[in-house]
Amino acid sequence: MKCPQCYQENFPGEDYCVNCGFALMDADLNKPKKGFGALILSDTVEKLAPPEPLIVKPDSTVKEAVELMIKHGHGSVLVVENEELIGIFTERDLLKRVVNVRLDVSVAKISEVMTGEPQSLSDSDSIAYALNRMAVHSIRHVPIMSNNKVSGFISVRGMLKYISEHTLERT
Amino acid sequence: MTVDDTITNSLNSSTLKQLNLEPPIEIPSGTPVFEAVDKMSDNGFGCILVTDGGKLVGIFTERDVLLKISISDVNESQSVDEFMTKEPDTLKVTNTLSDAVREMSSRGYRHLPIMDEENSKCVGIITAKQIIKFVVEFIPEQVYNLPPSLDQSMLTPEGG
What we know:
The complex is a heterodimer. Chain A is α/β, with parallel strands linked by helices. Helix content of chain A is 35%, strand content 19%. Chain A has one domain (46-167): CBS-domain, CATH 3.10.580.10. In chain A, strand 5, helix 6 and strand 6 (141-146) form a beta-alpha-beta unit. Chain A is elongated, with a radius of gyration of 19 Å. Chain A starts with 23 loop residues before the first helix and ends with a helix. In chain B, the strands form 2 sheets. Chain B has a 4-stranded mixed sheet with strand order 1-2-3-4. Chain B is built from 6 helices and 7 strands; from the N terminus they run H-E-H-E-E-H-E-E-H-E-E-H-H. The termini of chain B are far apart. In chain B, helix 2 (33-43) links the parallel strand 1 (26-28) and strand 2. The chains are: A alpha/beta, B alpha/beta. Chains A and B meet through helix 2, helix 3, helix 4, strand 5 and helix 6 of A and helix 1, helix 2, helix 3, helix 4 and helix 5 of B.
């Protein structure tokens, strides 16, 4: 099993992590065995079917980014430079930093109005992490990384759908 | 069959009246659209309700700003009525949280105005974030106490 502290892969049945000594039997015991609480630990964010992200370069204009968002009906674009995720631009940023101050969208660069260093998750992280980002940190869009490259993003909408599918009876 | 009877039952039995709904932010019909934008931006709110003589006639959201205003030629004198979604879907305070989850997830709404029992006045707004927080309250241990994400952890163990 994977050590929850350092992520070392241990042989099944090990009592202590061979790397950091963390007590694995406790980690195992504390985990709920059933219910939604167990599901969000065993399901990875992949279960939210992260859509392919919209990607722009830092020197793209705000207009180019917004056109992409409108075309695909997404509430965010990711800003990537040399394959590295450096920012996110959302509807909220658009409202506050662009429309509210009447910024010229065909001149302003996305790097001037994006939110830098967005909190991302790995594609092998559990749904619990996504819930944590949304409920605790109030983040609506979370980029998903796979092998250190942006592979998708998850949104509050996707999460609501997941909650609905697993907690409500079908009518 | 659902995976969790406790959460399911609670969603089915809790009415919207029992929630701390966000109070609605309202503007009168005919308000200049940029006034609506300013108000939404200042309040940190994703939507604003448009009323006419106390009656709900429309909803104006961040999505409307994206789609209809951000890169369009909008005149300062144009009113919010031209950009809002008219006669929005609503629920009543007597509806359950399940109703809200269904309505929002099937239609992709992030905000839903909630009307009083007589369906005459909007008393609050339920947001997708609130629903997520409601569900998380049942499973705090799994959500609040997490080790760092795999994405933020080092690729090799420390000292390894």
